[in-house]
Amino acid sequence: MTLVDGLYTWTKENVELSAGSISFKVVVNHSWGEAYPGQNFVQSVSTKGIYNVTITFNPDTKDVACALNLVEEIPDTDVHTYTVAGIPAAIFGTEWDAANADNDMELVEGLYTFTKNNVALTAGNISFKVVQDHSWAVAYPADNVVEPIAENGNYNVKITFNAETKAVNIEATLIEASDDFYTVAGAPAALFGTEWAPGNAANNMTLADGVYTWAKEGVDLNANTLIEFKVVKNASWATCWPAGDNYKYTVAEAGTYNVTITFNPETEEITFNAQKTGGVDPVHYDGDVYVLGEVNNIGGWYYDLGFKMTRDEANNQYTTTIYTLGENDGYSYFSFTKQLAEDWDALAPYRFGAVSDGDYWVTDEVLGTEIPLTANGGQAFRVPAGKWNLTLNVDNMTLVIEQMEGVLGDVDNDGEASIADVSNLIDYLLAGGADLTDSDCDFDGEIAIGDVSALIDFLLTNKWSSR
């Protein structure tokens, strides 16, 4: 900015702006450490056109101002999509999601309209904006619309938007008050969004004729997917049903489903219905798959560490060889993921594992057979320490586990890792010629001096060092 008469000034001429708003801060010395105002300065733009823009900043008072001078109006003949984005999730599905097409408004008698009828809301505030073309670049009004909800109950919600005047209105009409509310919390994430989240308002049940109902349409589920859940009262696990074990249902066939869950608080009866509406198989997958867990000396569960499997494009199978080192009383755990992540919440939709009420114990009886898998979570496989070949078929969601001969660090193939293998490995590094099938002791993909160190550490501690 340029200093003029004690004010810093920035100007830009002949700028084309769409109706909506511009948002900015004045930054001191190119650092966000000091910037004004505390909240972004938001300047509304009422008309699409060509503007001269002037922004000023008073370094003494820290006041920021913006002046828009309309040079030429541009007729707005573009056709736009308008979407409501806000909270709570009970109305909007996903919170503050400008890209959620389910919340696109319909043009009704000159007004863009969004309605959600008979939705269960808890006392609090509805807060939202109307977003243009699924982008926060243009959103109305400049400040959020906030509509208070005085009491728990079922509401009809109607939001309207006038594309010419930019006026936004909301009507939230109480249909039936309720002291209590009920929420479905469970897994997998493909059905329930966030898994096991009793406070997820998107899963609040709706009251009708004394029965609470929750429904979700168009859910892609894989064959053998285990669905389990509870109905939770007032977002607290202190009171939930079934009182004992979770309600459980296993999907027989892959496809697209409409799911309905009902709960009668008088009889405590739960009903579950999954109606298959399409034969689309969501399992087919052409990307990467990683083995996740206590394998190949990782030594634990880390969301950002995994071993990439090799894909056979002809039959869409993924294969790899792993070592399990018996971190837990001689046993190790593993499952699979389609991508690594920065945290467990981000990883959840991409994990899949065993169809089981608990961890799946791999016994001699299931070795070499097809073990069914479940998508979007699943339990871990538990195997003894050893060397294993894994064949994963993501089209029919099955896993074949085969035990292989070989011991990590056994360079000379005598059945054990010993001091002789250190010598053999050093000889190879000096001259080559050894059988190195089990010699990548640090799992970095190559045979190098680091494998000698890892092998020596194991011989001294009887424990492979973790990654």
Number of strands: 32
CATH class of the largest domain: Mainly Beta
Rg, nearest Å: 30 Å
CATH topology of the largest domain: Immunoglobulin-like
Backbone shape: globular
Strand content: over 45%
Helical fraction equals under 10%
Low-confidence stretches: none
Largest sheet: 11 strands, mixed
Mean pLDDT: 86
> How many distinct helices?
5
User: At CATH's second level, what is the architecture of the largest domain?
Assistant: Sandwich
Question: What is the rounded distance between the termini?
Answer: 51 Å
Q: How many domains make up the coordinates?
A: 5
What does this protein structure show overall?
Helix 4 runs antiparallel to helix 5. With 467 residues, the protein is mostly beta strands. Strand 5 (49-57) and strand 6 form a beta hairpin. The chain starts with a strand and ends in a 6-residue tail after the last helix. It is globular, with a radius of gyration of 30 Å. It contains 5 helices and 32 strands. It has helices at 89-92, 189-192, 344-347, 419-431, 449-461, and strands at residues 2-4, 7-17, 20-28, 31-45, 49-57, 64-73, 82-87, 106-108, 111-121, 124-132, 135-149, 153-161, 168-177, 182-187, 206-208, 211-221, 226-233, 236-241, 247-250, 255-264, 269-278, 290-293, 307-308, 310-312, 317-324, 331-337, 351-354, 360-361, 371-374, 381-384, 386-393, 398-404. The protein has 5 domains: 2-73, Immunoglobulin-like (Sandwich); 82-177, Immunoglobulins (Immunoglobulin-like); 182-278, Immunoglobulin-like; 290-404, Immunoglobulin-like (Sandwich); 419-461, no CATH class. Strands 22, 23, 24, 25, 26, 27, 28, 29, 30, 31 and 32 form an 11-stranded mixed β-sheet that branches. A 4-stranded antiparallel β-sheet has the order 1-2-5-6, with no helix packed on it. The model has no long low-confidence stretch (mean pLDDT 86).
